[in-house]
Design goal:
Order of helices and strands: EEHHHHEHHHHHHEHEHEEEEEHHHHHH
Keywords: Cell outer membrane, Membrane, Signal
Protein name: Putative outer membrane starch-binding protein
CATH architecture of the domain at 39-191 and 495-503: Alpha Horseshoe
Number of helices: 18
Main location: membrane
CATH class of the domain at 39-191 and 495-503: Mainly Alpha
Signal peptide: 1-19
InterPro entries: SusD-like_N (IPR033985), SusD_RagB_dom (IPR012944), TPR-like_helical_dom_sf (IPR011990)
Number of strands: 10
Length: 519
């Protein structure tokens, strides 16, 4: 078991109660200047920012709920979800929509207070002060990047909230991206070099990775011949190249004993038994282990499974990505082996109609609970390599892009000790063929890691419609007359989530006109 990290929420330091963007600040926080008088106090405040990042409504659970359900790539055992967000029809009062908005802004507000409190003091350890502030800038940048990609727009709040300014109006998305870049650049300046960071905390390379993703997101809307954001993405991504390394075995990334803070990790959310992320509960069927206390929220759509297997039939990663046979624990103490799709093809069966997923499936089926030490990896080096391949192809074509994706494929061929000829190295593609293939390769390598929602959308609605909506609706394995098989609507509003209804009703600086189109 890894050493427990206690993320202190400390009520006197963080009495920030969110009602939409009305932020009522506990007056006791204003009297806590002594927290910024030394490194110990400043780190206590920083731990509060991370506590918010780990919150159930953020990376703990609801961020997974929102992004996975809206990605278009998963089914669920949660019946209510199949009728709304699982069917690409999220209402503005959906709890996941509201919770992610609220707690992401809580994370931002805590970072704002930390940055404000440290900006006017000089701690004895100047390097550690820079490190703390760099982490706050990074977490604020990441959180705003999450918000603007999910909701399309949001308020921009970068100063502590007081009783004189409890509300904030909607900001221009361009201004939000400007601030995201500014914060990430500040983080790059202030964070320590790779190898000098505290274990589990970001180094400069995390800021570079974030900036590369930001520029790739902005480049998604560029027309042919426009390469400025692609070039900026390359300039940031190449700073990370060679500073991290792939672990030797893909399978080891998904074992709790070997998964945390590896050489491949660029940034990950830290979890532990006492403050567990709900990963096993989210991804394990309710009767999939002895404790019988999981939710079975996510399982892969048929087209997701088939696309991987049809592209690389002998890819060793398949068995470490999907679960097609599992042990069901019955109330009477007995067990049953459950075989899922593709062996089971009948529809409307919660246990077997869809394949489950391996990465966060509870590996200890005899355990009594779902608590886990396993962290959640936000950025890892394999993703960086695929990003570099995509960027290089956009800038110069595939000739020098193969090298990056081939590193990922070479590691895949030996996953779990295998020796396979698949996936083979890439060759003989033109730029458009490479562009098409690389978008699928993200899913083959990174499925279940919260990249699907964003990658599926950043190429625009036409791409999303063809590769997500139509790929799903046209799959021959479904029977859309059955309640578990959901037909996706052809509606571009799904490119962003609705602005939470609570936000629009409680914030006097907003109105119904601030709602996203179609909601």
């Amino acid at each position: 078991m890894k050493k427990t990290k206690i993320f202190l929420t400390i009520s006197f330091a963080f009495g920030l109660l969110f009602t939409a963007c009305e932020l009522t600040e506990d007056p006791k926080f204003l009297a806590s200047d002594n927290l910024f008088s030394d490194v110990v106090g400043a780190n206590t405040v920083l731990n509060g920012v991370y506590a918010s990042l780990n919150d159930f409504s953020y990376y703990g659970a609801d961020y997974h709920h929102l992004l996975n359900f809206a990605s278009g790539m998963y089914n669920s055992n949660r019946d209510a979800t199949l009728k709304d967000i699982g069917a690409m029809n999220p209402p503005a009062n959906l709890n996941f929509v509201t919770n992610v908005w609220r707690v992401t802004f809580q994370t931002i507000s805590r970072a704002n207070n930390l940055l404000s409190g440290l900006s006017g003091v000089e701690l004895a350890d100047a390097a550690e002060q820079d490190n703390i502030m760099g982490q706050a800038y990074f977490l604020r940048s990441l959180s705003y990047f999450n918000l603007v990609r999910i909701y399309g727009k949001c308020p921009l709040i970068i100063e502590p909230v007081t009783s004189d300014n409890p509300y904030a109006a909607m900001a221009d998305p361009n201004d939000i991206y400007t601030q995201i870049i500014k914060d990430a650049e500040m983080a790059e300046q202030l964070l320590p070099e790779k190898g000098s960071e505290t274990l589990g905390r970001p180094a400069k390379t995390a800021a570079n990775m974030l900036l590369a993703k930001v520029y790739m997101q902005l480049a998604g809307g560029q027309t042919a011949g426009q390469t400025d954001n692609w070039q900026k993405a390359y300039d940031e991504a190449i700073k990370v190249y060679g500073r991290h390394s792939l672990v030797s075995d893909f399978a080891s990334l998904w074992q709790p004993e070997t998964s945390n803070n590896t050489s491949e990790s660029i940034f990950e959310v830290q979890g532990n038994i006492e403050n567990t992320l709900r990963l096993f509960q989210l991804w394990t069927p309710s009767n999939g282990y002895a404790g019988r206390n999981s939710w079975g929220r996510f399982k892969s759509n048929l087209e997701v499974y088939d696309n991987h297997v049809n592209t690389y039939p002998n890819d060793p990663r398949i068995q470490y990505t999907f679960v097609t046979e599992w042990t069901k624990f019955l109330a009477n103490g007995n067990t049953q082996i459950q075989k899922t799709y593709p062996d089971f093809t009948k529809r409307n069966n919660k246990d077997k109609s869809y394949p489950w997923n391996y990465k966060f499936f509870n590996k200890d089926i005899n355990s009594d609970n779902y608590n886990t030490d396993q962290n959640f990896i936000v950025f890892r080096y394999a993703d960086l390599l695929l990003m570099l391949a995509e960027i290089e192809n956009e800038l110069n074509g595939p000739e020098n892009a193969y090298q990056y994706v081939d590193e990922v494929l070479a590691r895949a061929r030996v996953a779990g000790g295998a020796s396979s000829d698949q996936p083979a190295n890439w060759s003989e593609m033109d730029q458009e063929q490479f562009r098409e293939r690389i978008m699928f390769e993200y899913n083959f390598e990174l499925l279940n890691e919260l990249h699907e929602y964003f990658n599926n959308r950043r190429r625009g609605y036409d791409w999303f419609k063809k590769h997500v909506i139509e790929a799903h609706n046209n799959h021959p394995g479904y029977d859309f007359s059955k309640p578990r098989d959901i037909l996706y609507p052809d509606n571009p509003r799904i490119m962003v989530m609705p602005i939470p209804e609570d936000e629009l009703s409680a914030n006097p600086k907003m109105s119904g006109t601030d709602q996203n189109s179609g909601y």
